[in-house]
Amino acid sequence: MAHSVEGHLKLNVADYDKLIRQLVPGYAAMRTAHMALLRKLLPADRRSVVLDLGGGTGALAEAVAETLPLAEVEIWDTDPAMLAVARERCARFGGRIRYVERSFANPLTPCDAVVAGIALHHVKDMAAKGAIYRNIFAALRPGRAFLNADTAIAAGGVLREFSYQEWVNAMAPHGITEPQARAHFASWAHEDYYPPLATELRLVGEAGFADPECFWREIPFVIFGGIK
Question: Phi-psi category of 38—alpha, beta or left, where left has phi over 0 and alpha has psi -120 to 50?
Fold first, then answer.
């Protein structure tokens, strides 16, 4: 389960935040939707515990801490270099944010929400991903939510190519040509797998969530999950 964003994206970790906005269509809109959902599901005036799986540079944890002023956030990541960036970014929140150098395949801390942002697609084995979703369900308190922002692409045919072409088109305004974008996809395929949304929702349902849902979508990116 070990994974290094620095090695994967071939960049200095300090540049990650800038580059992710060039590579991910609708990144800002997805983050806004992610936090709006979390705000609706967790009262801002009550203490809550939120787990950020594969938290990387701490960008998602920072957004959670700003959105929910009383929340405590645990960032789970196996990459110490990325956690070091997260510690620097989130230092102003003090003890409200904890840094856990551990795989999110392990049993999780009891919590009120589990979030992830562009992270769980590194789990290529669907049985392993299903086990992670079961761990998430087990960790959540009743009535609480799992909200995963990630990539979902059709398994084949015209819809698969449509998703990739939409991704290519979204990179173009940032100066990334189609050959460069396609080269990125080929390189990332060694570590990434983007299951169809139907597969993700099936796994979420099999983990125990009664009503798996897609909450937001801008192809090929989605926010999906469920409420326990």
Answer: alpha
